Amino acid sequence: MEFYQVIWFVLWGTLWAVYFTLDGFDFGAAILQKFIAKSDDEKRMISRSVGPVWDGNEVWLLTAGGATFAAFPTAYALMFSYLYSALLLILFSLIFRGIALEFREKAESASWKRSWDNTVCISSFLLSLLFGVAFGNIFQGLPMDDKGYHGSLISLLNPYGLLTGVFFVLLFVEHGALYIAVKIDNPLSERAAKVAGKLWYALLTVAVIFLVFTAFATKLYANYLATPAFFVVPFAAVLALLGTKIFAARGSYLKAFFSSATTILSVTFTGVIGLYPNLIPSSLNPEYSLTIFNSSSSAYTLKIMTAVAFIFVPIVIAYQIWVYRVFRNKITAKDITEEESY
Amino acid sequence: MMDVVTLSRLQFAVTSAFHFIFVPLTLGLSILVAYMETRYVRTGDETYLGMTKFWGKLFLINFALGVVTGITMEFQFGMNWSEYSRYVGDIFGAPLAIEATVTFFLESTFIGLWVFGWNRVSKRTHALAMWLVAIATNLSALFILLANGWMQKPVGYVLRNNRAEMVDFTALLTNSYGWLKFTHTLTSGYVLASFFVMGVSAYHLLKKSSPDFFRRSFRMAAALGLASSIMLFVIGHFHAAEVAKVQPTKFAAMESVWETRKSVPYNMIVIPDTANERNVVEAIGVPKMLSFLAFHSGDAEVKGLKEFPVDERPPVMPVFLSFRVMIALGLLFILLSLVAVIKARRNRLETSPLFLRLMLYAIPLPYIATQIGWIVAEVGRQPWLVYGVLKTSSGVSGAVSASQVMASLAGFTVIYGLLAVIDIYLLTKYSKKGPAAIRVAENAGEGLGTPAGEV
Q1: Which of A5, A36, A76, B410 sits at 20 to 30 Å (Cα–Cα) from B364?
Q2: Do B117 and A338 touch (CB under 8 A)?
Q3: For residue A150, how many other CB atoms are within 10 A of its CB?
Q4: Contacts of B177 (CB under 8 A, 6+ apart)
């Protein structure tokens, strides 16, 4: 039983980490589009660079949600109802973002396109921020006991939650800027690289503040002090963040992009390892924390879900890598002057 | 002010009904588009390529809306029905998670390849991508409806540790109710898509734009429409018979049966009087027919609503009316698609403007049928959330206030209203444009172009 609970905790963390890494560059590219694209063609190049993959990226979120429901139903039920209003904002942003990405090119008028450009920028920004705020609050713990939840939408916007939100936004914008630098063959690419170069200092600053603030606002480091070997993960995050700058400065944008992907992965795992065995700690009394042991499904369900995950997740990864390879070329002006493919 | 349960139910009804405007079309249209593209790959006939792209575009508009409104559904279980989610998550969460892992990844990944991959993969691979999307879309429905089927006919679980725990996954996967619901929903999606394609084709045939193109589209859809509407009706019958067996209160409401009796006739005209727990009018009866339809034996006993406590009965009127209208529409679909097939085969479509106009105006009918079908299924299940196990009123979130749900319901209504307007605008725009407007990409499908630059 315990073995499967731990497996599902690792899978749960992995789904989130992969989700942030993949949708992270979609978010970043969409936020930047508004600021660095100078013409409609350049905007379309950015849309085109994420077009084939963003939908598949987003499913990692739905799978993370579904996995929480199946493996830790109590945590799913309580977290989703406690954070009702906050999740509603995320949901509306997801709806608007998906529609904006799909429908921008479906009509000619400039105002139609401008509305969707604004929508995709704002919703991507909000999603980056809100996911950060959500995880910042989970790291700190929620004010909950046997009588339920004692917080509100406003209480989620505490300093540490907001700091994590800003941290996420910067991580994703950096990631998106490097994605554009890699994927697009146009002066736009250099502009994005320049943004990535400058933004990196802000990201580094916020990352340092985050690491320090985490020691005060959360109990995440307890697991690390108990098992120092885990420090390798935050260490990897720092190293990867430095690597991002070094590679970008050399003009190796692909390496810089993978380095920033590693940063996001290891930042997420840093939080997840610190949480163990909690899914959502209670900030009032650890007794009421939702742990993988008191909120999981039965051993039988976990076993079945483990089998499903171990068969299908590798298949999913394989075909997603294949699709990324099919679209591995740089987007050029030719790609968007070509007729829309449907 | 309404209470949390009522508001949450209303919100679930609004969001799932809206989601289900888009889903059935994608179920059927994905198959048709994949088939059209296969014909193109096999024959090299450019008309099939044009058909793939024209109908594919309409498919994509719907697909996008189906996806974004589907996200709401997954979140909503935890947000509004947390007590339910906690109580049955051990068994109900599994099919949802499997749907995401096994099918949703597949459709979302390959739809990207399909849309943007015309010049990047071989023709065959491209057609295969659409088949993967179609199969995944259909399989998504399977997992969702196995989950729903479990709520209707709970199997393979025990009540333990203050919740329902799964003990038999195979029972969940082979739940007869889930499979009947799945095949019934699937065929209804095929009927809906067929009528959509026939209706839009009829519009263009009436206008005499691209006749060859739309004649072929019409013919293809008519064949699917006839086959699927007959299947739909047959499966519908077995589905209703299963309901009679496992959900007697729902069945009694569907037919407005109040007294428990044997050898019940089927009355063509029934007017229920729910206040007095009887029917005011029961006329034109076929002896023993209802017993026969429900239990395949003319002498069988049909349980009446009075057999059950008042607080365990569903509201009769909406269920009864929806069921009657659904059956009438089902028969009409068989009739219309039969005429459609005959006219298409004899090349008499363009000489029958009246029929074409009829088919154009018939586009909304399957939409109505699918929506009221869900009323039968879900209102008929009340007051149970999980039939016989958990009441709807016990499943709602304790931590959520009425004002919160009121606000979210208002938000959904506004946003979904906006989406509906956009959808109708885009669908009309592209439906009217016809294939000429879908500019076929140069060298489309000409095999693997060498990627312009390696990354």
Answers
A1: B410
A2: no
A3: 13
A4: B149, B150, B152, B153, B242, B246
Q: Do A300 and B79 touch (CB under 8 A)?
A: no
Minimum CA–CA partner of A96 in chain B:
B68
| DSSP state for residue B257 in the 8-state scheme | -
Three-state SS at B271:
strand
Cβ(A274)–Cβ(A139) below 8 Å: yes
Q: Does A84 contact B79 at a Cβ distance shorter than 8 Å? A: yes
Burial A250-279 (b: 16+ CB within 10 A, else e): eeebebbbbbbbbbbbbbbbbbbbbbbbbb
The type of residue at B60 is L
Inspect the interface and report whether the beta carbons of B78 and A79 lie closer than 8 Å: yes
Question: Cβ distance A90 to A131 under 8 Å?
Answer: yes
Contact (Cβ atoms closer than 8 angstroms) between residue A27 and residue A170: no
* Closest of A190, A170, A171, A169 to residue A180, by C-alpha: A190
- Can you tell me the ipTM of this complex? 0.90
Q: Model-level pTM?
A: 0.91
Read off the pLDDT of residues B419-432 as tens digits, 9 standing for 90 and up.
999 888 888 888 88
pLDDT digits (tens, 9 = 90+) for B113-149: 999 888 889 999 999 999 999 999 999 999 999 999 9
Which residues are CB-contacts of B420 (< 8 A; sequence separation ≥ 6)?
Answer: B18, B21
| Interchain proximity B74–A69, CB inside 8 Å | yes
Q: Within its chain, how far is the Cα of B72 from the centroid?
A: 17
- Strands B301-302 and A144-145, bridge-based pairing: unpaired
B429 CB neighbours in chain A (<8 A) are 107
For residue A77, which residues of chain B lie inside 8 Å, CB to CB? 78, 82-86, 89, 397
Q: Give the amino acid at A177.
A: A
